[in-house]
């Protein structure tokens, strides 16, 4: 951290900060929100100044500008972080003030949504936040606390109803129970398939680690599974599971059928096996050969060697495999919506069929958020399992 | 006592170790020296059964190593390898306590033993106990490696090129430390090296291996003075043999009455040191002292006489 | 590489047959199609779908390569070092954003068709190329770089004559990973009306026609295998060349 600070001291202004400020200024001139007559037609853009009376927009615009300016000084990463938070606060303020103001004279079916200007500013400020955090290099626990704070703030804002007038939130309120079902189903698909793949993949990985020949046949076979496009994998599972459901007695009773949850789940599991097995093999091989030799020499049994040396040293790599799987499955689970498997994909594909942008958002935004949060949490876990000495060194 | 009895290891039809027999007394250091591919490491690894012998057996205090399960046998034999092999994810204390933990020692006993060993290796327990191997210098890592091997008070300590990864100055210190600790604990050590200098310096007995066979086994002085074959003579280093021999003889063995000019040397210095002092300062004799009091002198004549014995 | 001699032409011939003469395979797929339903996808020529599929992947990968390699060069220079964490974040996010979500989110802005697919493939493909370019450019043998400086090459000459050629095999590995992922992912583009082989699979999903699903999946899978193999060969050849020239 020290070296970054002194290295950058030459330029007083952070180059990325300058980029953010320039892009942010440009984005201020794009349409900030749109007003549409109903949920299907395309909306008309409204600039950031016009979303609400000036007395309401001014504080928000000032906060965004100030945030961008605070992002400039290279040597004060804390200030840059503060700037990002301030700017994001300004954006939310503008959204919360603009939505009811615009709806007032829009008619009964009118819908307001954030527009390109908002999304650009949001991205820029989030990147500013990430850049400042990279500079601060907080420890894994600190990062966890920050993530919790951000999620807490987000939950509070959504709960407070300040954003309820937005179109996407109206889509939500008219589908509340469907949304909760979809969330549960999406989580089941993503995390359930991860857990299943881990339960199957770990032992296979350990066996492959022990047996060179097995590794030589298993890994190529699993790689081949991965070359099947995800869409086709879902499709192939339908007749297979349909056949099992029809022929094996009792299979349908436990939910095995050609459509719905089962084929989606199985496709995700098959897709997850390669990263789990490959990373388990790589992770177990990561222990230094001299440490393995020493473990053998001091009289550890193969099981003790695995538990006390190979697994702890390989854990970061193994967890990285699980991270890949989790993020991938959260995304692929959307496709389940196409074969009646439920999850957020249901909204995405309904929205695409009806060209209802906000319904698409209702499915896509939580998916993206879930993937990002999972990636961050898994990164923290990977960091925590890394041996302490190498973490500090 | 360690008895190695006609032990043989055959790889793909060719013997890597060919019917080697030797005996090592308890409380001594035996150094097995040879070029790479001489079978010395295979011989060592057959003692704790990291390699299974094709035929023959090893007895430790009369009991065959084949009568115990390999992993249980290894817990009774310390093992130190080149590049230390410390577990990078465990602290110094956990590394040293590894074998006692395998043996289910109570926690406080392990803790006490770890502190005792750290002190013995002049590493302050308070300061080093909770460090990770990556936070230690090369010499410290090596000491922790040896301490780990000694933790459960093994019957025997096997060391495979233990100092190979150290630079010359630290290596010399580590060798001295090992010698001192071995004397203090009375451990039985078998050490493998390719460095004859190290063998002569450390060994009570030196075993020279070549192409899987034991070509000579004796005290360092015997090896230097009467190499059994041209190969051993070559290992001992031809022209330097007289100097090697001199380095094995302490002044106390040849001290005679009389006085000599210049600074005195302590009686536990070697004849090689005395020769060096004579040549450097142009003297024909140097005075010898014991605990600060002069006890006589060593002359160039006497040194020459000892060196000629080997010729 | 014994099996390669037999397998490689076999894969290519099978692929060509599936794309150009799909009706040959009617007996193979027939048991999978529902009774009375067509067995071979005929709503659109498989050749044109394949070409469009490959074109999309090629365009997205080319764009991702251009951006990633440029970024990697920039952030491995002293002047651009401040952008390194930012570039990492952006490329990482590109792969964390699920491609289906990217498709869905870009449809409102770009409309149905090839646009959203290009964006999704581009974003998803950035990370492997960027990471490998960084690795390739920052792990060059120091002696070689010193020698290049000693010869009096300026920075630009060093980059073009020494650093990039040496890093090329590693960069190519990144491109290979990216292309193979993209070939499979592009099928999803057909959910928003991009012309890809995914069209065949989706038609199969919507009409419960497994014959279609397998046809589409098989062609895409074989393309992935063939492209993977071709790029691996190219890398090996490049790596051999750079080793051969670096030894004397």
What does this structure look like?
The complex is a heterotrimer of chains A (393), B (311) and C (248). Chain A is mainly alpha-helical and 393 residues long. Chain A folds into 2 domains: 2-159, Butyryl-CoA Dehydrogenase, subunit A, domain 3 (Up-down Bundle), CATH 1.20.140; 176-392, MetI-like fold (Orthogonal Bundle), CATH 1.10.3720. Chain A has helices spanning 2-8, 15-28, 54-70, 77-104, 116-136, 140-160, 167-173, 176-210, 212-227, 230-247, 261-284, 289-297, 302-332, 345-354, 357-385, 388-392; strands at 31-36, 44-47, 111-114. Chain B has 2 domains: 2-237, P-loop containing nucleotide triphosphate hydrolases (Rossmann fold); 244-308, CBS domain Like (Alpha-Beta Complex). In chain B, 39% of the residues lie in helices and 25% in strands. Chain B is built from 14 helices and 13 strands. Chain B has helices at residues 40-47, 70-75, 92-96, 98-102, 107-120, 125-128, 138-150, 168-185, 196-202, 220-225, 230-236, 241-247, 271-281, 300-308, and strands at residues 2-11, 14-24, 29-34, 55-60, 63-64, 77-81, 156-160, 189-193, 205-210, 213-218, 265-266, 285-290, 293-299. In chain B, β11 (265-266), α13 and β12 (285-290) form a beta-alpha-beta unit. The longest helix of chain B has 18 residues, at 168-185. Chain C has 10 helices and no strands. In chain C, α3 (46-76) packs across α6 and α4 packs across α6. The model of chain C has no long low-confidence stretch (mean pLDDT 86). The chains are: A mainly alpha (393), B alpha/beta (311), C mainly alpha (248).
């Amino acid at each position: 951290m020290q070296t970054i600070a002194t290295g950058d001291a030459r330029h007083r202004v952070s180059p990325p900060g300058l980029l953010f400020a320039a892009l942010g200024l440009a984005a201020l001139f794009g349409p900030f929100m749109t007003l549409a007559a109903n949920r299907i037609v395309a909306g008309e853009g409204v600039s950031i100044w016009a979303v609400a009376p000036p007395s309401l927009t001014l504080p928000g615009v000032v906060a965004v500008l100030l945030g961008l300016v605070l992002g400039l000084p290279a040597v004060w990463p804390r200030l840059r972080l503060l700037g990002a938070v301030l700017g994001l606060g300004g954006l939310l303020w503008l959204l919360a003030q603009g939505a009811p103001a615009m709806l007032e004279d829009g008619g009964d079916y009118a819908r307001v949504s954030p527009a390109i200007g908002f999304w650009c500013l949001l991205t820029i400020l989030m990147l500013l936040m990430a850049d400042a955090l990279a500079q601060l290099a907080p420890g894994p626990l600190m990062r966890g606390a920050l993530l919790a704070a951000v999620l807490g703030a987000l939950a509070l804002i959504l709960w407070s109803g300040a954003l309820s007038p937005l179109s996407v939130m109206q889509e939500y309120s008219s589908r509340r129970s469907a949304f909760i079902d979809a969330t549960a189903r999406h989580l089941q698909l993503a995390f359930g398939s991860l857990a299943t793949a881990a339960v199957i993949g770990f032992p296979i990985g350990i066996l492959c680690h022990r047996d060179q020949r097995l590794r030589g046949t298993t890994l190529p076979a699993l790689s081949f599974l991965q070359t099947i496009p995800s869409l086709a994998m879902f499709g192939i599972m339908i007749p297979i599971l349909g056949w099992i459901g029809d022929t094996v007695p009792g299979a349908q009773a436990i939910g095995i059928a050609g459509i719905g949850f089962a084929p989606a789940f199985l496709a995700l599991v098959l897709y997850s096996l390669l990263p789990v097995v490959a990373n388990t093999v790589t992770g177990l091989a990561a222990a230094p050969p001299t440490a393995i030799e020493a473990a053998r020499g001091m009289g550890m049994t193969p099981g003790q060697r695995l538990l006390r040396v190979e697994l702890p040293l390989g854990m970061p790599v193994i967890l990285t495999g699980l991270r890949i799987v989790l993020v991938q499955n959260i995304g692929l689970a959307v496709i389940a919506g196409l074969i009646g498997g439920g999850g957020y994909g249901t909204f995405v594909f309904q929205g695409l069929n009806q060209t209802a942008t906000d319904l698409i958002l209702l499915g896509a935004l939580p998916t993206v958020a879930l993937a990002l949060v999972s990636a961050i949490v898994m990164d923290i876990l990977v960091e925590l399992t890394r041996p302490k000495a190498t973490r500090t060194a | 006592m360690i008895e190695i009895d006609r032990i043989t290891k055959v790889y793909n039809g060719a013997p890597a170790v060919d019917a080697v027999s030797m005996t090592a007394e308890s409380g001594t250091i035996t150094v097995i020296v040879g070029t790479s591919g001489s079978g010395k490491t295979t011989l060592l690894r057959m003692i704790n059964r990291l390699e299974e012998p094709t035929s023959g057996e090893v007895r430790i205090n009369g009991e065959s190593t084949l009568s115990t399960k390999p992993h249980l046998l290894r817990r009774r034999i310390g093992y130190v390898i080149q590049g230390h092999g410390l577990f990078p994810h465990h602290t110094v204390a956990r590394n040293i306590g590894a074998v006692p933990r395998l043996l289910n020692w109570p926690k406080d006993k392990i803790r006490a033993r770890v502190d005792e060993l750290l002190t013995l290796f002049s590493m302050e327990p308070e300061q080093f106990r909770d460090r990770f191997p990556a936070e230690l210098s090369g010499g410290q890592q090596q000491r922790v490696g040896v301490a780990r091997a000694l933790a459960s008070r093994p019957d025997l300590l096997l060391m495979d090129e233990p100092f190979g990864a150290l630079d010359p100055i630290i290596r010399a210190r580590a060798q001295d430390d090992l010698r001192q600790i071995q004397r203090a604990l009375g451990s039985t050590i078998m050490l493998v090296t390719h460095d004859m200098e190290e063998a002569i310096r450390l060994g009570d007995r030196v075993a020279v291996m070549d192409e899987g066979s034991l070509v000579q086994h004796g005290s360092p002085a015997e090896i230097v003075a009467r190499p059994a074959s041209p190969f051993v003579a070559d290992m001992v280093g031809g022209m330097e043999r007289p100097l090697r021999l001199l380095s094995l003889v302490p002044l106390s063995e040849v001290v005679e009455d009389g006085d000599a000019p210049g600074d005195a040397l302590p009686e536990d210095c070697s004849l090689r040191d005395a020769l060096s002092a004579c040549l450097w300062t142009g003297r024909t004799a140097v005075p010898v002292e014991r605990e600060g009091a002069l006890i006589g002198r060593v002359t160039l004549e006497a040194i020459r006489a000892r060196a000629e014995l080997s010729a | 590489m014994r099996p390669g001699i037999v397998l490689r032409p076999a894969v290519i011939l099978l692929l060509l047959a599936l794309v150009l003469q799909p009706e040959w395979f009617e007996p193979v797929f027939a048991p999978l199609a529902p009774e009375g339903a067509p067995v071979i996808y005929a709503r659109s020529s498989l050749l044109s779908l394949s070409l469009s599929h490959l074109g999309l992947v090629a365009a997205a990968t080319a764009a991702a390569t251009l951006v990633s390699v440029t970024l990697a060069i920039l952030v491995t220079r002293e002047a651009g070092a401040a952008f390194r964490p930012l570039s990492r974040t952006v490329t990482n996010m590109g792969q964390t954003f699920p491609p289906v979500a990217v498709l869905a989110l870009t449809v409102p802005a770009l409309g149905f068709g090839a646009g959203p697919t290009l964006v999704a493939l581009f974003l998803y493909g950035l990370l492997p190329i960027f990471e490998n370019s960084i690795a390739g450019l920052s792990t060059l043998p120091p002696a070689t770089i010193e020698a290049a400086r000693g010869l009096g090459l300026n920075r630009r000459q060093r980059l073009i004559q020494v650093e990039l050629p040496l890093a090329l095999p590693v960069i190519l590995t990144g491109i290979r990973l990216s292309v193979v992922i993209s070939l499979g992912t592009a099928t999803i583009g057909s959910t928003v009306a991009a012309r890809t082989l995914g069209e065949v699979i989706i038609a199969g999903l919507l009409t419960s026609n497994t014959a279609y699903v397998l046809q589409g999946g098989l062609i895409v899978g074989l393309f992935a295998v063939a492209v993977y193999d071709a790029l691996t060969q190219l890398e090996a050849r490049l790596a051999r060349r750079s080793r051969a020239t670096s030894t004397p």
